[in-house]
Each structure stands twice: as C-alpha cells, then as structure tokens.
Amino acid sequence: MTGKTSFLDSVSRNFDKAADLSSLPKGLLAQIKACNSVYQMRFPVKIGNDYQVIEAYRVQHSHHRLPTKGGIRYSQKVNQDEVMALATLMTYKCAIVDVPFGGAKGGVKISPRAYTTAQLQKITRRYTAELIRKNFIGPGIDVPAPDYGTGAREMSWILDTYLTFKGGELDAAGCVTGKPVNLYGIRGRTEATGRGVYYALKETLSYADDMKELGLTTGMEGKTIAVQGLGNVGYYAASICQYEGGAKIVSVAEYEGAIYNEKGIDIDKLMKFRKKTGSILGFPGSKTMKSRKDVLTVKCDILIPAALEGQIHKGNAKSVKAKIVAEAANGPVTADAEEILLKKGVMILPDMYINAGGVTVSYFEWLKNLSHMRFGRLEKRFDHNTYMNLVGLVEEKTGKTIGAKEKDFLTRGADEIDLVRSGLEETMITAYQQIRLIKKRKKKVTDLRTAAFINALDKIASDYMTLGIFP
Predict the structure, then answer these.
(1) Is residue 8 part of a domain?
(2) Strand-pair partners of 58
(3) What's the pLDDT score for residue 308?
(4) DSSP labels, 140-188
(5) pLDDT at 261
(6) Where are the alpha helices (DSSP H) in 296-356?
(7) d(CA 251, CA 258)
(8) Predicted pLDDT at 470
(9) Whose CB among 59, 111, 153, 281 lies 3.0–4.6 Å from 87's, allowing a Cys bridge?
(10) Structural domain boundaries enclosing 71
(11) What is the DSSP letter of 295?
(12) CA–CA separation, 90 vs 352, rounded Å?
C-alpha cells in the first residue's frame, strides 16, 4: 500500500535499531529475532450447502519460555507475515511486563461479519482441532486468547473442543484464556487491555520533567484524547480515562466514520447511541468528520489508535497533532512514521508495552486455572475480620465511632476484580519505570520503543544464558 511499510518489516526494523545498541552476541540476537515455529493450515468447513477452504495460521515465535501465548485474530486481512509480526511482538511484550510466556499468535482469514454464529462456531472448532492434532495448543504448550474479531464466545468454543479431545487433563481449562467468567474465566479480563492503557498513561503523565518537554502538565485530568476504534480496547481505554481519570474525549472514529466535539464526548452515551442507531454518526452535539481517518490528525494531547496496524504511516504522520501517541492497537505506527513523529517531538508509548494489559490479566487467568481457585477466596474474609478488629480497637481507644459506610469501606477484603486490577496496575507501573530508566540512562536511546526493546532483549537473553544455550 502506498506510503506504508509492512507490519513485519516495521517490527524487524525496530528490533534492529535496538539490537545495534545492545552488547549481546549476534548469534543470540538472531535467535531471539527468529520465529521458532510457523504452522500454516487450510481446512474445509461446510457453509450452507457448499464447502469453503479456510486459510489459517498459528505462529510460535519463541520457546525460551513455555507455554507460548497470544491471541487469535479473525480478519480477511490475515496473512502469514502479519501473524509472525504479532507473535514476535508478543514475545517482547511478555518480557517487558515479566509474564513468563513465549510469544505466539493465531489468525483465521475470514470476515466474521460474513458468517452466522453457527458457522463461526464450526470454523473455530475445526481450527482448534487442527491445533490439537499438531500439538499447537495446551496449558503447558501454547495458550491462545482473544484478539481482533474474537472474544469470550470463541474462547469458550475452543475450550469445549479441547475438552472433547483431552477431557481427563487436570489443567485443561488453562489451554485458553479470555473465557467467560462462568467458564473458568477471570473478572476484569474484558477490560484488561483498555485498563492497562489507562494505567500506563496515568504513570507516563506523572513525570513533571517529561511532561514539561511536551508542553503538558502532569495528571490525566483535563487532557484531550482522540480514539480510533471502539472495540474492547478503545472503548475501555476511553471510558476509564474519562470517568476515572477526568480526561476529555474530543474525537472518536469507528468503522462507519468519525465524529468530533471540542467540548467532549460522553463515551457511554455514545455507545448507547450506537447500539440504538447502528452508528456513531449523528451523535448529539458532535460534528461528522469528512473521513474516519481524520481522527488521527485531530489536535489533542493524546491519540489512542486502537484499531489495526499501519494506521499512521509516512503519508499522514506529518499531520498528526497529538503530543502523545498511545499504541493501544498492535503496530498502528509504521517504522517510517515513527521517525517523522519523533522528529516532531511526539512521545510514542509503544504497543508492546501499553497494550500488555490483556496478556497480563490472561496470565492471571492461567494461574487461576492451574490453581483451581478464584483469587481472594482464601484471604478475603480473614482480611475483613482483621480490619474490623483494628477499627474496633481504634474506636475503643479513642472513644469515637465511625459510620457503617465508612466502616465497610475500611474493612472490606479484596475480591477477585480488586486483586486483578491491583496486579495489573503494579505491572504497568513497574514496566514503565524500567523502560523510562533505560531511556534516561542510555545516551543513544532517544525513544521509548527502543528502550522497551532493549529491556525485552536483556530479559530474554538472560533466560537463554540461564538455560546454557548461549553461555
């Protein structure tokens, strides 16, 4: 496509940029860069009275840690290079947030809109059967998750198919994550990537010296945000930034077009409007933009591209007016575009960090499945009783009492959702601090993506050296 670089080429170029600044052996860097296993498949599925041959992929980028981990994408644009690029990013993403998985990714070349629910179920189950036959799925082998075009429904079909083949396997529920909560899933998974974006932005905006360079004040309150894509990631990122962070959403783009309102767009009201009308266009108080791509060039503090890769390329990068680009999607900024944005002084929060909330909470779900117990079950009531005793002791010593609501607030033990959010926030904060420290300490590192790559390479290399493969 004119003006655009391929996704895999962008990932490779970003890797090479970081590798040139690394002191790691060239052979080790070559091993880290290479995709270990690529499974390309074609299988027949009966659709109506005809049979269709479905093209699909599963790529395991790195086996330095097992299982490998990564989502399954349903899109007519799926191809081998794209799945390889996504799997590669997953390896680095897991390393950055200290999740003990190798990277993987899956893709099925279909448009979900073109099929009924029953037909999608057939395709999903057949795809899963192919993975099982080739030993490309399992709680200790390779653990898929949702991605673009898939969700909890598809993950439940995958689990059920896996159980049909391997029903006696003790940890079978851990073969896939992103499942419905009532089917071995975990609370907080649906919002995880979007909430991770919020935690990452909140931490980024907390550093006064960094914000001063961008001409911004610290804190999320009052920041203007434009969002491309209102899927799980875009919606939750926008919603949480607005309602918990106090940000103002000024522009939103979806499949049908883009809207703008400098006074702000209420995301929840917009979602209700879209559900009712089938479109975001015509939302009260908003102005319809000429093109849905115009959201990328809106004047704002933060741009959140949460759709597909390659959205900001060398053909439109010069028109981007945001001061921070938060890559909620995978690969929305090409390598060529990144060079242009960095020269303009734009801060880019790289995808392999900022959208790692999904894999982080998937890790929590996997741990839950292996432990066969929901988080908080053992300690919640103990913590509540302990806090009640402490409050009672303070009341006794001071001769004062507090109201029932205040007492409930102070003494409640943590539910699963509280622990998941706490763990996610800790993960995103710690990862950003590590990346930022590398950028500050290494003179030749001038951007956060390169710093993130170096962080990932060092951790992966340490694993290889510990294994004795590269002494």
Answers:
(1) no
(2) 39, 106
(3) 80
(4) TTEEEEE-TT--HHHHHHHHHHHHHHHTT-TTGGGG--S--GGGT--TT
(5) 95
(6) 335-343, 351-354
(7) 7
(8) 61
(9) 59
(10) 35-183
(11) G
(12) 7
How far from 128 is each of 30, 73, 107, 279, 296, CA to CA, in Å?
A: 31, 13, 12, 34, 37
DSSP H or E segment with residue 42: strand 37-47
In angstroms, how far is CA 426 from the centroid of its own chain? 16
Q: Are 283 and 270 within 8 A, CB to CB? A: yes
Q: Which residues are catalytic, by number?
A: 105
Helix H segments across 97-151? 117-133
The DSSP result for 402-458, as a single string, is --HHHHHHHHPPPPHHHHHHHHHHHHHHHHHHHHHHHHHH-TT--SHHHHHHHHHHH
**Residue where the block lists tokens 């070559």:** 30
3-state secondary structure of 322: coil
C-alpha–C-alpha distance, residues 454 and 18, integer Å: 6
The C-alpha angle with vertex 405 and arms to 403 and 407, in degrees rounded to 5, equals 70
| pLDDT > 90 in the chain, percent | 81
Is 413 in contact with 379 (CB distance < 8 Å)? yes
Looking at residue 10, its pLDDT comes to 85
Instruction: Give the confidence band of 471 by pLDDT, cuts at 50, 70, 90.
Output: low
Q: What is the CATH number of the domain that holds 73?
A: 3.40.50.10860
Domain membership flag for residue 393 = no
Which of these, 416, 403, 414, 417, lies nearest to 381 by C-alpha position?
414
User: Measured between alpha carbons, how far is residue 409 from residues 71, 187, 382, 397, 423 in Å?
Assistant: 37, 21, 15, 20, 20
CA angle 438-237-457, nearest 5°? 25
455: nearest Cα among 98, 87, 104, 105: 98
DSSP letter, residue 53: E
Counting the structural domains of the chain, the total is 1
Whether residue 204 contacts residue 194, with contact meaning beta carbons closer than 8 Å, is answered with no
User: Is residue 1 situated within a structural domain?
Assistant: no
Q: Report the pLDDT value the prediction gives residue 3, as an integer from 0 to 100.
A: 46
- Chain position carrying tokens 């089917």: 183
CB neighbourhood size of 113 (10 A): 9
The DSSP secondary-structure symbol of 378 reads T
Helices (H) and strands (E) in the chain, counts: 16, 12
Whole-structure pTM value: 0.91
What average pLDDT does range 362-383 have in this prediction?
Answer: 93
**How many C-alpha atoms does 129 have within 13 Å on its Cβ side?**
11
**103 within domain boundaries:** yes
